[in-house]
Amino acid sequence: MIELKDITKGFGDKEILKGVSATMESGKVNLIIGASGSGKTVMMKCIVGLMKVDSGSILYDNQDFTAMDHRAKKEIRQQIGMLFQGSALFDSMTVEQNVMFPLEMFSKDSLKERKKRVDECLERVQLKDAAKKFPAEISGGMKKRVGIARAIVLNPKYLFCDEPNSGLDPQTSLLIDQLIKELTQEYNITTVINTHDMNTVMESGDHIVYMYQGQKQWEGSNKEIVFSKDQQLNDFIFASEFLRDAKEMRQLDMFKDSKWKDQLEEQLKRDGKK
Amino acid sequence: MEFRFFYHFGNFLLMLKGMFSRPENMKMYWKQFMQQCVDIGVGSLGIVFIISLFMGGVTTLQTAYQLVSPIIPKSTIAQVVRDTIILEFAPTLTSIVLAGVIGSKIASELGNMRISEQIDALEIMGINTKGYLILPKILAATLMIPLLVAIAGFLGIWGGKEAGVLSGVLSSEQFMMGLRQEFKAYNVFFAMAKSYTFGFIIASVSAYYGYNVQGGALEIGKASTTAVVVSCVLILFMDYALTAILL
């Protein structure tokens, strides 16, 4: 579990994060959503330690990451896997070597065992056939999957994904979402995803933090988000007419067996939609 | 180019300090060091070969052109060529060319790694990126550049001899006699001292500008140019300083 306690971060006079507190739950897919410039990327960089917070604290399983010395931070970082927006694969290495790299650096296993683990990870992301290819020779979706394989090769406790679906077609996005969700449950990882993708929000968002102008505006699950009365959140999620209609259809479909069904239908009737 | 000397100098020192921590895996650091030795050393052999030969040839012809007095023996030409190449041309000219070749490569490689978040990826893994990416480059440069300078010295003198013999300025025997006249081993030490210093400047300055790139592709190009320009200026400055101190 990762807890953020009143973190602030600014650049010069501009305050980007204004006292954000949130909890990222273990074994769940935690999403940070928000419009561009809302501070979600800065927040993720602060959580993983690529940026220092100005104040507040970040707790990894009750250990204060912000107060740790360099060595202790290194230990925590070795439990972190991260998928970057641009995949951040090492250009000069093949897919296999990219996935092997963290093992070579940190594992004391024999070469045979390391190779076996790499094969397992590549198999898991369905990329065994591309093992000998260089990053320049594979598609964007494949690069993301290699990034995921590299992120999970050391069995991390925490997985961070910075806009995992950016630049991908809807079908590939869906595959990536499913893969991350499955891995989260399989290894009981605390997964934190920074995304704009509404499909990810609805399909994978076990726990969602909505950022608005550097502050946490809303926190909840994908089941609660459709009922939110928060104006900014609704403006953000249901930005188009199509999505607004889809929301109503989805609400009925998703909650057809739930206790909220009557309440929802009533609300839609009131709004003149039904 | 924004000139903020103390800001850059302070950051540069911090970068150097940050390189020294216990390696996460000595084998990987060694592998990286050997890779850099190959890139810097073997990768620059071609250009060093070409410039050294022509540098020696031109030095011989120009020295012969200026030493026209009948009382100066022809072998003096070889002596002048030898000392000019050992003292100045091999270390300084070669290092200036290498600043362009190696410096721009280091700056653009690290710049690209920074922009494409590869450095961040290494940081997240818990790797000291300054130690893993920069230190092997500096060590490799301080080992390989003196070797390249030594090769440049030999090739320059050989090129000078061949140019002198082919153009009929002096015979092979006269050249060999001149080479042995008043040879001072200290000059070789001086050349090596300069090449170690220049090797450090080229790798560390280029790594500094590459590692701290912010922005996009345009900034990588700018960092690369700045790295080469600053390296060349520092090489010339240190050339003067070392000459004043050591000779």
Explain this structure.
The complex is a heterodimer of chains A (274) and B (247). Chain A has 274 residues and is of the alpha/beta class. Chain A folds into 2 domains: 226 residues, 3-Layer(aba) Sandwich (Rossmann fold); 35 residues, no CATH class. Helix content of chain A is 42%, strand content 23%. Chain A contains 11 helices and 10 strands. In chain A, the strands form 2 sheets. Chain A has a 6-stranded mixed beta sheet with strand order 6-7-8-3-9-10, with helices on both faces. In chain A, strands 2-1-4-5 form a 4-stranded antiparallel beta sheet, covered by helices on one side. Chain A starts with a strand and ends with a helix. The mean pLDDT of chain A is 86. With 247 residues, chain B is mainly α. Chain B has one domain. Chain B is elongated and about 70 Å long. The model of chain B has no long low-confidence stretch (mean pLDDT 93). At the A-B interface, helix 2, strand 6 and helix 3 of A face helix 5 of B. Chain B: It holds the Pfam family MlaE. Chain B: InterPro entries: Permease_MalE. Chain B: This is Phospholipid/cholesterol/gamma-HCH transport system permease protein. Chain B: Keywords: Membrane, Transmembrane, Transmembrane helix.
Uncertain segments of chain A of ≥5 residues (pLDDT<50)? none
- Second CATH tier, the architecture of the largest domain in chain A: 3-Layer(aba) Sandwich
Backbone structural class of chain B: mainly alpha
Distance between the termini of chain A: 42 Å
Label the overall shape of chain B: elongated
Give, in order, the helices and strands of chain B.
HHHHHHHHH
Major sheet of chain A: size, sense and barrel closure?
A: 6 strands, mixed
Apparent shape of chain A: globular
Kindly state the number of beta strands of chain A: 10
Reported for the largest beta sheet of chain B, the result is: none
Q: Which value, in Å, is the CA radius of gyration of chain B? A: 21 Å
Instruction: Write down the domain tally of chain A.
Output: 2
Give the helix proportion of chain B (percent range): over 70%
Number of strands of chain B: 0
**Alpha-beta content class of chain A:** alpha/beta
Number of helices of chain A: 11
The average pLDDT value of chain B, as a whole number, equals 93
Proportion of residues in helical segments of chain A? 40-55%
**How would you spell out the order of helices and strands of chain A?**
EEEHEEHEHHHEHEHEEHHHH
Counted by DSSP, the helix tally of chain B is 9
- The CATH class label of the largest domain in chain A is Alpha Beta
GO cellular component, one term (chain B): ATP-binding cassette (ABC) transporter complex
Protein name (chain B): Phospholipid/cholesterol/gamma-HCH transport system permease protein
Transmembrane segments (chain B): 6-21, 42-65, 85-104, 138-158, 185-211, 223-246
GO molecular function, one term (chain B): phospholipid transporter activity
